[in-house]
Amino acid sequence: ETLEKANGNIKSLIGDEMKLKDLYKKGQLENISIDQSDLKDLKKELNKLGVSFSVMKNKESQNYEVFFQAKDIKVMEYVFKQVIAKENKKEKESILKQIKKYKD
Description:
This protein has 104 residues and is of the alpha+beta class. It has helices at residues 2-13, 20-25, 36-49, 73-103, and strands at residues 29-34, 53-57, 64-69. A hairpin with a 6-residue loop joins strand 2 (53-57) and strand 3 (64-69).
């Protein structure tokens, strides 16, 4: 019995991608738009921090809409900044590699 309770607590700490309908039942939703290149990193960070979310593709803009509970907005801001910083770091590294390539 104690093991089941502990296992349930661990599951509640792990974020997961949910159906939008199920997420809506849990409360007010917010969303952000993100392109496909950042989606994988965003999902990884959200799962790590235990945020429940839902992803839908916007057919008009070809971006993805990530829906999450309004109570998680501060966490989402943090995660979004982390993903953007990580993406910028990748770009800087590749520019440095190009410069070194031309120097040699």
